[in-house]
Amino acid sequence: MFSVGSEHSIQGIPAVSYSNGHRVLGNSQSRLHRSFTVLKLLGTGHSGRVALCDWKSPEIFPPNTTLPVMQTGKGARREWASKRLVAVKQLRRVFPGGWDECQLLRELQIHCEMPVHPNIISLYDFFLSTDTKTLHLVLEPMEGNLQHLIKARKGRPLAGGLVASIFFQMVSGIGHMHSLNYFHRDLKPENILVSTTGLFSYRSVVAATSGRETEMDIVAIVKIGDFGLSRTVDSRQVYTEYVGVRWYRAPEVLLMGADYSTSMDMWSLGVVMAELLLLKPIFPGTSQLDQIDKVISILGDPTHDYGRDSFGDPIGGGPWPDGVELCRSRGFRFPQVRPKDLHTYFSRRVPPTLIQCIGQLLRYDAEERLTALECLEHSYFRQTMPLNDIPDLSAPHLFSGST
């Protein structure tokens, strides 16, 4: 049981070492003691609980592992200076079949197989407790998540340059996953981890032509985390309807479709971006049907073509013949609702190209949504990213003992 201040010395399977920069795993009979002290409880999710810990021993970190951003940024706490901070995730599931059963877990497989990326949370170590038969993942720690950041703003909008930076990092991390044929299936603010590294004077995106207006705001490092529901694109598994939190579910999931892929992550990304701008959820449904109603109330129904906007994009979520048929097979019919102008939901501080980009993510038809690569090439990023060359305010420091 994790509790603040508790010390843990766990005999774990398998033993882990590194040779020539590569992880070497022992067999299902090998053991190695892992020791850590719990500093703070970070949260509890559907798959397990996570705690910020001071890692004591042994030296099992990958070669050249740097101290986490939360220890090297300008806001790092003094009491953390002498510690080796990690996030330890203890999964709820018990593995009576031992290590051989653990190796079949997709979350662990994806963590181990995915190449390192600056916007994907890193896995340091993993082990099965010989006593409790529970699996522990030792992860790169972060200060908090996007939900914490939104709440901390207390209604104060993020600087335009900060929004662009966060968006770019999210798309980069998601694009990395998608390029490797993985999709997340549970993108929401709680799974987008954030650490801050100081302050920066951002050039205003809206006032780009004058080049005079600046906005002081935090510098945020963003990483995608929690791969408990992630899958490979070519998985033959029949997917369940329960994917992610309701507010961020794509329409095909809300209608209990069984065929979906990376495009569902792009819908979730659009919903998260809208929330980052509004500082509140855009589709806060209270039930499955209410969630569909919330989406339709803004994007309109997908049974009609409501024309094109000034960018030449479909007004609202666009037509979706397959969804209409899926809906009919469920004994449900979409009510006829005209879409709202998405631009009226956001402040004039928000660049029209960003609203356009969000609209192109919130398409009913999954085939019509932007891919991660198309998102990175969007005119919004071409307009905003050159304005602010954000410095790296957290110089990398190697863990003591890393080589």
TrEMBL record:
Domain (Protein kinase): residue spans on this chain: 36-381
Which SMART domains did the record assign?
A: S_TKc
Q: Does the keyword ATP-binding apply?
A: yes
Q: Which Pfam families match?
A: Pkinase (PF00069)
Which GO molecular-function terms appear in the entry? ATP binding; protein serine/threonine kinase activity
Q: What are the protein's UniProt keywords?
A: ATP-binding, Kinase, Nucleotide-binding, Serine/threonine-protein kinase, Transferase
Origin, by domain of life? Eukaryota
Supply the InterPro entries for this chain. Kinase-like_dom_sf (IPR011009), MAPK (IPR050117), Prot_kinase_dom (IPR000719), Ser/Thr_kinase_AS (IPR008271)
Q: Does the keyword tRNA-binding apply?
A: no
The record lists the organism as Guyanagaster necrorhizus
Entry protein name: Pkinase-domain-containing protein
